[in-house]
Amino acid sequence: MAEPIKKQPELISTDENKDHEFTLSKNMAILVRLKNENITRNTQKVTDITSALIDLKWMHRHEIYPWRAKEEVYGAVLEEILNSHPKLKEQILRRLESHYQRLKEQEAQTLSMTRGLAEKTWKSSTL
């Protein structure tokens, strides 16, 4: 049996070649966009807020260190004041507790807003 004759690919003219390059570049751009959308969609589902906050804290650790040093200095000063003026202890501790509770409340509000933004359920009060 004779083998069927294979058709040779036709040579593409320069105009057709440009059209093919244009189509190829368009298709590649679409594929890249689809890939990026899939990555974004999948990572939004997988990443939970706690790990994202830990990642942010790790990224900004050099900015956090001065705050820790400041806390230690304030703690040492506060301890010295409490040791030298024991009658002010109750008043100072009350104020510290009220400030702490206010900070805790603000942090809880921030975290709930962050969670709402991540889950796309948060609505701005200005809209």
Question: What does this protein structure show overall?
Answer:
The protein has a domain at 48-119. Helix content is 77%, strand content 0%. The chain is built from four helices and no strands. It has helices at residues 14-46, 49-59, 61-84, 89-118. The chain is elongated and about 90 Å long. The termini are far apart.
Count of extended strands: 0
- Unreliable parts: none
Q: Give the amount of beta strand, in percent.
A: under 5%
- Helical content (DSSP H or I, runs of 4+): over 70%
What general outline do the C-alpha atoms trace? Answer: elongated
Radius of gyration, in angstroms, nearest whole number:
32 Å
Order of helices and strands: HHHH
C-alpha end-to-end distance: 78 Å
Mean pLDDT: 79
* Structural class by secondary-structure content: mainly alpha
Write out key terms for the chains shown.
single chain; elongated; mainly alpha; 127 residues; 0% strand
Helix-strand layout with pairing:
Elements: H1 14-46, H2 49-59, H3 61-84, H4 89-118
In short:
The chain is an all-alpha fold and 127 residues long. 77% of the residues lie in helices and 0% in strands.
